[in-house]
Amino acid sequence: MQRAFTMQGPITLFLIIAILSFLVNAAPQDLSSRVRAYLQSQGVNATIPYNANGPQAHGVNGNGDLATALTCGVLNAYRDINLVTPQDGQLYTVQAQQHWSPTAWGNPNCIFEPTTVREVQFFVGLLGITGTTYAIRSGGHSPFKGFASTDKGVLLAFHKMKGVEYDPQSETVRMSMGNTWGDVYGHLTQYNRIVVGGRLPPVGMALVTGGGLSHYSNEKGFAGDNVVNFEV
To answer: Nearest to residue 171, comparing CAs of 195, 153, 149, 147?
Structure first.
């Protein structure tokens, strides 16, 4: 159902979101071959670059496993400009702690930072093969550990996906998951428009997946009620 947003005129919200599929746990003995087959299906060199005895296998505080080593290894080789690992030192610490509250901090084996929907799709497919533990962080505003953090596996951090596009004809806003509501409101100021979104600027787009209270909710409902479409 399409709702009218606001102040100056009707706006509807189109949110780009990548929804992760159910994971299938692969048996250790055939995991490497399944990953290799997946890489081939994606047109990627079938070499599996990981070290079963390396730091990504052991992870942080010994929290690694074969599936995690495979996942982080593949991402490191083929998406390396968007991957942060504990070996990156201070950069890893900063990215692992990009949460509103220290109570939510975790120690993932690696942090994947996609910039395109295609990269997210590649990652989801890889998770479906390896069954690796993962967490997703949009704005990281939840104070609860495990909501947007993990002490094992991969953290999918959306902060590099920040596109915001306003269409004046349809009066819809297309937003990537790395934005905060402050980013969105700032972009819409030039159009004299607003959306039914988070009440605080640092809150991320994941707000709409759990309803989402807004200053306009009494009139327009939750932020999630105003979503026109999700891109999966």
So the answer is: 195
